[in-house]
Amino acid sequence: MPSKTNNGVGIQVEDTKICVVMVGLPARGKSYIAQLAATFNVGNYRRHDAPQPTADFFDFSNPEGERKRRAAAEAAVADMLAWFRTGGVVGILDATNSTKERRKWVYDTCTAHGIEVLFVESKCDDEKTIMANIRDVKLTSPDYKGQDPEEAAQDFRNRIKHYEKVYKTIDGDKDEDNYTYLKLMNVGKQVIINRIQDYLQSRIVYYLMNLHIRPRSVWLSRHGESLYNLSGRIGGDMLLSPRGEQYARKLPDLVRESVGDDRPLTVWTSTLKRTIATARFLPAHYNQLQWKALDELDSGVCDGLTYQEIKDRYPEDFAARDEDKYNYRYRGGESYRDVVIRLEPIIMELERSEDILIVTHQAVLRCIYAYFMKKDQAKSPWMNVPLHTLIKLTPRAYGTEEVRYEAHIPAVSTWRGKGSTAKHENPTPESL
Ligand SMILES: O=P(O)(O)OC[C@H]1O[C@@](CO)(OP(=O)(O)O)[C@@H](O)[C@@H]1O
Q: So what's the ipTM on this one?
């Protein structure tokens, strides 16, 4: 019997481990979807042996190609199993897994190791989406690095043709009816769900059903420098300093420079004065929404104190927070882990949306940034996120692209190193 544990939101869940196995032809958004957890991308293993193969490598009647692709799949699965043994919970096996034989092998191997399998098939016959994916892959895949874009696109189309010859959709016939699977047709227009059995599987399905693979960007900004930032106090609901006010006035230009004039944008702020004030000069035709879930980490009894005051009044708490900043919960307040959990609806809505600009706070921004950049959430509380900087994140099949726009308006640093109570400390290179 599997044991039961608390999943951090107060719900008892079975101690399950799940391998999400992607299925589908190339250029159907699989790698894009798979960006979102610990991913074992068979292509990355194959590139050790065959860094930039042409399309005929993927011809299923090419024995050399077959052998190398099989070896890559075995290496990826072996590493994934080792990762599960170190405590991993949800792993993604990102490959085409386009034949029944390959799926059976993955299924048998995982279940023999006590790991549940959830197949996620992305089917798509919408030419526009496929072309956009081909363009994206051609621009970002290491397979085509340094190659002529047109030739790369043609070669990639030929590769897809080879896969089409052997590809079998998961059709729920007698061979595959016992599998747990989610089939997403044309980027979620139609969805088929088969044999979803437990809590974790249903959470993954809920999450995947909210994803889309259309191109979009997310812009992130902290509020302008606040009066509390100036005095080194945390939390509160203060207005902006004169330099913070300057940033608010400059933000529309920074946004225009990055977004362009006619692209529609939705702006999300927290419910606190400093983010609302920072967003107030943005064009009136941008939809603006305030989210309680974007409010700054609640510092409970320490709200409004400086780090020195916290250390003087609550020395044990100060030390405990430095010891484990991600899990430490302020008395009467929150931990970073709490913030990550309360951000779930925000992440879900972000995944459903097109272009969004979020004006929020240091702790919240660290968590959102870590999510998109696949950084370890447990390390994110020590990350430096400077004031007066607009960050543009664009999720792509092979990672999220980042561009930063600096307003060149001076602001204090609110970064703090472990053990320090300094008010405006300079960030260390590791924190950047
Ligand atoms: O978790 P640490 O590093 O203490 O930083 C979070 C803190 O960042 C601050 C600034 O120091 O956020 P904010 O951007 O909202 O002003 C504090 O209010 C908040 O408590």
A: 0.85
Over 50: is that where the pLDDT of 3 sits? no
Residue 362 CA: nearest ligand 1 atom is 14
The yes-or-no answer on residue 296 being catalytic is: yes
Instruction: Answer yes or no: is pLDDT of 30 > 60.
Output: yes
Q: What band does 6 get if pLDDT is binned at 50, 70 and 90?
A: very low
Asked whether 232 and 225 are in contact (CB, 8 A), the reply is: no
- Which residues' Cβ are closer than 6 Å to ligand 1? 222, 226, 229, 234-235, 296-297, 299, 361-363, 381, 414, 416
Of residues 209, 160, 158, 159, the one with CA closest to residue 185: 209
67 pLDDT higher than 90: yes
Number of other CB atoms surrounding residue 5 within 10 Å: 11
Burial of 170 (0-12, 13-18, 19+ CB in 10 A): buried
Q: Which fold does the domain 18-210 belong to in CATH?
A: Rossmann fold (3.40.50)
Q: For 122, left (φ over 0), alpha (ψ -120 to 50), or beta?
A: beta
pLDDT score recorded for residue 13: 44
Cβ neighbours for 333, distance < 8 A, ≥ 6 positions apart: 297, 298, 299, 300, 301, 302, 303
* Known catalytic membership, residue 253: no
Contacts (Cβ under 8 Å, ≥6 apart) of 340: 367, 377
How many Å is the maximal CA-CA distance in the chain? 73
Taking 90 as the threshold, does the pLDDT of residue 158 lie above it?
Answer: yes
Rounded to whole angstroms, what are the CA distances from 165 to 60, 73, 161, 421? 8, 20, 7, 64
State the DSSP H helix or E strand holding residue 309, giving kind and residue range, or none if neither: helix 307-313
Give the SS3 label for residue 363.
Answer: helix
- Among candidates 216, 348, 355, which has minimal Cα distance to 291? 348
d(CA 340, CA 364): 8
On the question of a common fold for 18-210 and 218-431, the answer reads: yes
**Stretch (H or E) spanning 396:** strand 389-396
CATH for the stretch 218-431: 3.40.50.1240
- Given a cut of 90, whether residue 268 has pLDDT beyond it is yes
- The domain spans of the chain are 18-210, 218-431
DSSP state of 104: H
Residues in the chain: 432
Across residues 218-234, what is the average pLDDT?
A: 98
For residue 232, give the ligand 1 atom closest to its CA. 11
